[in-house]
Specification:
253 residues; alpha/beta; 10 helices
Length: 253
């Protein structure tokens, strides 16, 4: 079953509940290509998934060099996974996929709206389903969502299907980069620092549990960090030799 049949376009559900919903950028293209499933293919969300955030598990069953050579970026929001990932993919001549963007494309609505209508538990189910499929695609640089490591099954999937790079960012760096962000559901709190510190305490051990490599995301030059990663991955035999790429200096988001 394709991911298109697994991820029900929420627009159909929401149209009956809240009137007009503004779709994401790619919804029109998705409609034209008839990639959305019909109503009979809709998912039932009766089963609730528990978020297993217990200490690091034994998800790694294969050493890095024996796995698929997909490169997977994990880390907290604001670490630069998407920004760095796009540049890294260009340098290595690979396809880039942002897991959050893929979920929005396949459902037809934004992630904040999914959180609002279905709650975090059901969003995590959608996220897990998307990950289980996209991880099988070859030659990827995949940027995951900050909470993708919360489910044990996701951690096992990440560790067994690619080389995982943890982009580590301090709470202070996150606050700086996310200062103007008003869309992320988990940031909607009176005290952002406290919220980020709570999330770091819960998630940082899980990022470390799945990581093959840790990179400090402290620079405001994502192209520099991407090149450092590309060089390191080439040295390890995980990635191909570097390809020429234009100099870039945009800030991480």
């Amino acid at each position: 079953m394709s991911i298109g049949s697994k991820l029900l376009p929420l627009r159909r559900v929401l149209d009956s509940r809240a009137g007009t919903i503004r779709p994401t950028r790619s919804v029109a293209d998705q409609r034209q290509s008839n990639r959305f499933p019909n109503a009979a293919e809709s998912l039932s969300f009766n089963r609730r998934l528990s978020l297993d955030t217990s200490a690091p598990d034994e998800a790694a069953t294969l050493p890095p060099m024996q796995r698929s050579k997909n490169i997977i970026l994990v880390g907290p929001m604001g670490a630069g996974k998407s920004t760095v990932g796009k540049r890294l993919a260009r340098m290595l001549g690979r396809r880039f996929v942002d897991l959050d963007e893929l979920i929005e494309e396949r459902t037809g609505v934004s992630i904040p709206l999914i959180f609002e209508v279905e709650g975090e538990q059901n969003f995590r189910r959608r996220e897990s389903q998307a990950l289980q499929e996209v991880i099988e695609w070859p030659d990827l640089v995949l940027a995951t969502g900050g909470g993708s490591v919360l489910l044990r099954e996701n951690r096992e999937c990440l560790r067994s299907h690619g080389f995982v790079v943890y982009l580590r960012a301090s709470v202070s760096v996150q606050l700086q980069r996310l200062a103007r962000d008003r869309k992320r559901p988990l940031l909607q709190a009176p005290d952002r620092r406290q919220r980020l510190e709570q999330m770091a305490e819960q998630r940082n051990p899980l990022y470390l549990a799945v990581a093959d490599e840790v990179a400090e995301s402290v620079s405001d030059r994502p192209a520099k960090l991407a090149r450092q990663l590309a060089t390191r991955l080439s040295e390890l035999g995980i990635a191909e030799p570097l390809q020429p790429t234009p100099s870039e200096s945009e800030n991480c988001h």
